[in-house]
Amino acid sequence: VNDCDLLIAGWMSQIPDLLRCSVPTLYWEQGNEWIFGYCNDLSRNASIRQHLKHCYSLPCFLAAVSPTVARIIERRYGRRPFVLPNGIDTDLYHPQEHHNANTILLVGNPTLGFKGFNVALKALEKVWRSGRRFKVNWVCQAEPKVSGISFPLKPITNSTQAQLASYYRTADIFLFTSWYEGFGMPPLEAMASGVPVITTGCGGVDTYVVAGQNALVADPGDIDSIAYAVAFLLENRQARSVLAAKGRETALKFSFDKVAVQAESLFNRVVSTYRDVIRSEHTGKWEG
Q1: C-alpha distances in angstroms, 270 versus 7, 11, 281?
Q2: Which string of DSSP letters, residue by residue, matches 154-212?
């Protein structure tokens, strides 16, 4: 790797080894569960917390996928990361005209509690019991264990990216109910696919979501507000069309070609800064 210009760590635990090389190391934090406190031991001296503190304190360059993640790292570890958002393939995820079938789409792993699928199911049950009719597709990594619902639910496991894009395009509403997210790709994928989005204000989605303009937003865990938003969109095709159009406009701003320019600029800045540090024989910490 010493022949490279830049090393990008895929996981924080790789940082200590990569720093032994004579090449600048950049860690791009996507917002792992631990920095949000999603671990069994919440004490300050918990081993995972000490590991995080050690890794984030090492003299590597840090980037965050969203301002939300950047603020957490800055406040908790005293580092100010660069911000580089995720990009999306707006050719793979694209809109298509389809017949209104009141199909609601969920996407994500049912075994991850912070995704809030229990909240989504309770909100949808409330909508169903109000007399509104719909069907739900759930694209997921594992078969969900679901009980106590009256509406039709179709779990879809092991789908390819192309199949996932197709499920987005044929949905009428996308529902996202996470408690927190570092960025949150599914709502942006739905926007790129021309699907109106209902999401919780779970942090990272603030990078691209503007409440009432390109998505409807509820507080995490607010079953009543989520149910109201679902019922509203089921009954208002015009509102769905407006959100779908604004969502597509938003997604185009995060297309791969646009984010690639930002990434290249960041990579060049890191390499240039590293060379300046080496030339000046600076051994302290630096921002980023």
Answers
A1: 10, 18, 16
A2: EEEES--HHHHHHHHHT-SEEEE--S-BSS-HHHHHHHHTT--EEEE--BGGGGT--BT
- Lowest average pLDDT, out of 123-132, 174-183, 191-200, 270-279, goes to 270-279
Residue 194 gets the label, from left (phi > 0), alpha (psi -120 to 50) or beta, of left
Report the distance separating Cα 229 and Cα 226, nearest Å.
5
For residues 28 and 11, the answer to whether their CB atoms sit within 8 Å is: no
Using CA atoms, how far apart are residues 99 and 2, in angstroms rounded to an integer? 55
Contact 190, 197 (CB under 8 A): yes
pTM for the structure as a whole: 0.92
Token pair of 259 as six digits: 């984010």
For residue 140, the cross-strand partners are 157
H or E, element range at 137: strand 135-140
Name which of 65, 87, 93, 8 is nearest 260 in CA terms. Answer: 87
How far is 175 from 136, CA to CA, in rounded Å?
10
Cα(167)–Cα(98) distance, rounded to whole angstroms?
Answer: 12
Position 288 pLDDT exceeds 60: no
DSSP track, 51-119: HHHHHHHSSSEEEESSHHHHHHHHHHHS---EE----B-TTTS---------EEEEES-TT-GGG-HHH
Q: What is the DSSP letter of 14?
A: G
Average pLDDT rounded to a whole number, residues 244-269: 97
Cα separation, 160 vs 283, whole angstroms: 47
pLDDT band for position 286 (cuts 50, 70, 90): very low
